[in-house]
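Intended use. Records like the one below are meant for learning the mapping from a protein sequence to its folded structure. Do not use them to infer anything beyond what is encoded.
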Amino acid sequence: MSGEGDYWVYMLLCSNGHLYTGSTPDLTARYRKHLAGKGGARYTRSFPPLRLAACWKIPGGRGAALRVEAFIKRCTRSDKLLLVEAPRLLTEWTEELPGRGNAPEPADPAAFDITPRKEGEEA
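Structure written out for the chain above:
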């Protein structure tokens, strides 16, 4: 679902009620890995995701996505909850990030095929 050079920054609502933030070039595949407990995220192995809470397409590649991800991780829980309710706020809040040429584009989490697949099953 992502174009050349685009990355995704996402927030997951986990089983313990916390919001996990990450970035990836392929949101659907990454979410499936979280559901399966694979892919290096120890946190979501301990507290599996319940749903994709919010996501943003980040033009400009991995560096831009990592800057936005770090910004969200520094936010308070109340600010993160605001971002879940009003994803467009991220565009305004990140205007001053260094090296950012393009604004984060909010996406509807429901638009992603995030049903778990069985081992070896193809999309």
